[in-house]
Amino acid sequence: MAGLNAATLAPHDLVWLADPATSLDRDALPDWVSLTALREMPVVVRRDGCRIGEIPVGLRGRTRSERYGTWVAPSAICKIVTPIELAAQRTWRHRPELATLPAIVALEAIADWLDAADIRWGVTGSAGFSLACAHNVLHADSDLDLVVQAAQPLPARHVELLAELQRAAPARIDIQVATPFGGFSLLERVRSGGKVLLKTAHGPRMTVDPWQPAP
């Protein structure tokens, strides 16, 4: 895609490869990876700063153990869907076959609350993947993974609302808060009173302030 570079994308963004067979190192791929399926399925942008100018992505299979991290050139990407777009477009309402799954029931129950609170949020994980393409990987025990974009520290009212929604939802909700320096678990911050494991492009680090981590 014209003008696309590593800085354009964020972790959890879903991207499609124009030609998986030439975009990936075929000799290094696990046996479970299907290049044919990858023509229709996205890969997910992940955090990794090891290769300047390339996009770190993760491939997923049918089970939790089937995960593979690699890199692709920006020119290999032909389509992008962000977690924020999946939420804003209420994508799950166009997928009636998923409507009774607990993660989707939870999503429908909390979406308007999050918007009304002016929280910038998106759908990630299995739910995001399943909503972005025709390949459903959700099941009855799947968590609902969300990301909350927060360039500045979250107001106390937002933390309280998010924590309450996590407790009351009909499925387990895992909320990751994305700061300019990395992402952390909201539940971990609530439980610890502040100190969290911040996931960065250069590895995890403990910090008491995810918006001003010590060098």
How would you describe the overall organization of this protein?
By secondary structure, this protein is of the alpha+beta class. The chain folds into 2 domains: about 80 residues, Roll (SH3 type barrels); about 120 residues, no CATH class. It is built from 6 helices and 11 strands. A 5-stranded antiparallel sheet has the order 4-3-2-1-5. Strand 7, helix 5 and strand 8 form a beta-alpha-beta unit. The longest helix has 15 residues. It is globular, with a radius of gyration of 17 Å. The protein starts with 13 loop residues before the first strand and ends in an 8-residue tail after the last strand.
Oligomer: single chain
SSE order in H/E notation?
EHEEEEHHEHEHEEHEE
Average the pLDDT over all residues and give the rounded result. Answer: 93
Fraction of residues in helix: 10-25%
Strand order of the largest sheet: 4-3-2-1-5
Query: Can you count the helices?
Result: 6
Radius of gyration: 17 Å
Could you name the ranges where pLDDT drops below 50 across 5 or more consecutive residues? none
Fraction of residues in β-strands: 25-35%
The CA-CA distance between the termini, in Å, is: 34 Å
Tally of separate domains: 2
State the major sheet: 5 strands, antiparallel
Based on DSSP secondary structure assignment, what is the total number of beta strands?
11
Q: Which class best fits the helix and strand makeup?
A: alpha+beta
Q: So what's the overall shape?
A: globular
